[in-house]
Amino acid sequence: MDLQISGPRQQRLQQDITITGSKSESNRLLLLRALYPGIEIRNLSNSDDARVMQNGLASGADTVDIHHAGTAMRFLTAYFASREGREVTLTGSQRMKERPIEILVEALRDLGAEIDYLENPGCPPLRIRGKRLEKSEVTLPAHVSSQYISALLLIAPSLPNGLTLHLEGTITSVPYIRMTLGLLDRLGVKTEFRDQTIRVEHAASLPESICTVESDWSSASYFYSLVALSPTGSQIGLRSFRGDSLQGDSVLPEIFGQLGVESHFEDDRLEITRSGDPDSDFFRCDLIRSPDLAQTLAACCFGLGIGCELTGLHTLKIKETDRLVALENELKKLGAEIRVTDKSLHLEPSRRIVAMQRIRTYNDHRMAMAFAPLGLKTDLVIEDAGVVSKSYPDFWEDLEALGFSHLEV
Ligand SMILES: O=C(O)C1=C[C@@H](OP(=O)(O)O)[C@@H](O)[C@H](O)C1
Ligand SMILES: C=C(OP(=O)(O)O)C(=O)O
Q1: Tens digit of each residue's pLDDT (9 = 90 or more) over 248-265
Q2: Which domain holds residue 385?
Q3: What ipTM score was computed for the predicted complex, to two decimals?
Q4: Which residues form the Enolpyruvate transferase domain (predicted)?
C-alpha cells in the first residue's frame, strides 16, 4: 500500500492522541511473565513486534518466526536456550537473517547453551536445544547492540545461580539496559550495574504484580516533529506518559526544546506546543543513547530548513535496514544536501523541498513515520506505508485525526 499524504498547511494543530504501549517494555514484560506467571500486564503494545513475541512464547511449534522483530529474536534466543528440554528453530524475515546475533549466541554458549546456525554463521535462523544453564558469569562485547545484554538480563533471575555480565568496550544504547534492569527492580529482582559489570540475583519466584506499560516515546517523536514543523501555537496532547520514564527516548522534551517545542506534563498527559523557532540554524546531537530518534530528527531538521550533525549512529547499519543509507537516499530525493559515514549524518541547512517525491521505506517502520511529518510542507508518497505496524499500527489513523489526508495510490 503506497499512500499519497498531504498535511494541513498554515493551520495550527490541536488534537489529543493516545499512543500504544512501548514495544520495548512490552516485549520485556512478556518474557518475564512467561518466566513468572504472576505478572499482569496493562497497556500492552498492539504492535506486530509485541504480537510475534507473544505468539513465540505461547507456541509449542518446532519453528517460531518472529518476522522483523529484533527484540523478539534476541530475547527469545536467550529464553529458548535456557528452557531445558525445549527444541526450536527460531527464524525471521529476510532482513532478520542478515542482522548479527553472534555476540549473544557466543555468550549463551559460554553459559552452556546449545545453539547452531542453520544458514549463515553469525545470523538467524538458529536451531536451539534448551538446557539448564548453571554457569553464572560471562563476558561479552557491548558496542554492537544492547539487545544482547537485555536478552541475558531478562533470563538471568530464572538461572539457578543468577548472572554476572562483564561488558567489554563502549556500551551502546545504555538506556535500554537500564529499562531492563528497571523492570526487574520493579518486579522485585535484585540487580546491580556498576561500571562495566551487571549482577542479577536468582529469583525462584516473584510476588504477583500489575505492570502498566508506559506509551511509546519513540512513537511520540513523530508528533514532536509534527509540532515543530507546524505554525506557532500548535499543540498536541499525548497519553499515557510519565515523568519518571524507563525509556531512553523520553529525552525528547530536552532535544525538541532546542527545536522550538515546549513540553508540559499534566498527570499522564504530555502536552507539546510549538512555542517558537529552533534555537539555531544548526542542530547537533549524539544519539548513542537514543538511536531510534535519528530518522525523526534528520527529517525534522530538513523540514525546518536547518542543518544538523547527528553522531553515535553506528548501530543504525544493522537495524530494520541500513538506516544511514536509507536516510541519505530519501532525503536527497527531496533536495537535501546530506553526507553520511558509518556512524554519523551531516545535513546542510536549506529551505528547498522538491515536491511529490516517492519515499521508499525499506521495510522500516521508522522511515515511513519519520518522513510523514514532511507532509506539512509538501505532498509526498510513502511507499509500503503499512510497515508502521511493526511498532505503531494506528499511526495513519492518528495522523488523519490531525487533519492529514492519505490517499492510496
Ligand atoms: O532493547 C530494546 O528494546 C531496543 C534497543 C535498541 O537497539 P540496540 O541496542 O541494538 O541499539 C533500539 O534501537 C531498539 O529499537 C529497541
Ligand atoms: C531497531 C528497532 O527495532 P528492533 O531492533 O527491535 O527490530 C526499532 O524499532 O527502531
Answers
A1: 999 999 999 999 999 999
A2: 3-21+214-408
A3: 0.99
A4: 61-399
